[in-house]
Amino acid sequence: MNQAYVIQPQSIPILPVRGTDKLFPVHRIYCIGRNYAAHTIEMGHDPDKEPPFFFQKNPDNIIVDKDFPYPPETSDVHFEFELVVALAKGGKNITVEKALDHIFGYGVGLDMTRRDLQGVAKKMGRPWEVGKAFEHSAPCSALIPVADVGHPHKGGIWFKVNGEVRQKGDLDQMIWKVAEQISILSTFFELKPGDLIMTGTPAGVGAINKGDQLEGMIEGVCGMKLAVI
């Protein structure tokens, strides 16, 4: 039986795959909070006392190869530069030992945050979506397949604003490593092919303004450049 939608469905969010004409369909975006000790401290928390926690962005928050439009209802937008993990396989209760087998590839991305709105939500005990899951809040690079990049366990990560280094760290400084993040997430959710994980950010996050030029790089993975408009 033929069926018709009562409204036009939205297009599937996608990420390009570097060096090919293939596209990666995005299912969900999971983000881990405070996963580098120095960033945890700069946000006023103790990295030795916190279990891991996660929040989500919407798949259609992704933008690729586009400038970042400064969002409404805020005067304090922060950058958080991160390694992005793309899953080719899903599952429940995935073991740490098997977790890396589920990865399609890696990229880099920004968890853009309306920090003032997030701060109000925290104080009132409310969810973070208004601060984290707004339009264009997940700029991402193209993905690089595991066959080309391997599984990066270490490598310098830096982010510049107008040519000035603002964030600098190394992937090996993650409190919860990529395999652990996948394993833990899979106990709370049934992970699916197409899921992305934004793996946390080093210390040095801060505000941006219209006209700023942004550039980030993870050694051995890739980089990205964009402007704030």
Question: Top keywords for this entry?
Answer:
single chain; 229 residues; alpha+beta; Fumarylacetoacetate hydrolase, domain 2; six-stranded mixed beta sheet; four-stranded antiparallel beta sheet; 6 helices; 17 strands; 17% helix; metal ion binding; hydrolase; Fumarylacetoacetate (FAA) hydrolase family; Fumarylacetoacetase-like_C; metal-binding
Architecture, CATH level 2?
Alpha-Beta Complex
Name of the CATH class: Alpha Beta
What overall form do the CA principal axes indicate? Answer: globular
Strand content: 25-35%
- End-to-end CA span: 47 Å
| Adjacency order of strands in the biggest sheet | 4-3-14-7-8-11
Count of DSSP strands: 17
On the 0-100 scale, what is the average pLDDT?
Answer: 94
- List the domain count as a whole number: 1
Instruction: Please name the CATH topology.
Output: Fumarylacetoacetate hydrolase, domain 2
- Overall SS class: alpha+beta
Cα-atom radius of gyration: 17 Å
Tally of separate helices: 6
Largest sheet: 6 strands, mixed
The CATH superfamily is: Fumarylacetoacetase-like, C-terminal domain
Percent of residues in helices comes to 10-25%
Q: What oligomeric state do these chains adopt?
A: single chain
The parts where pLDDT drops under 50 for at least 5 residues are none
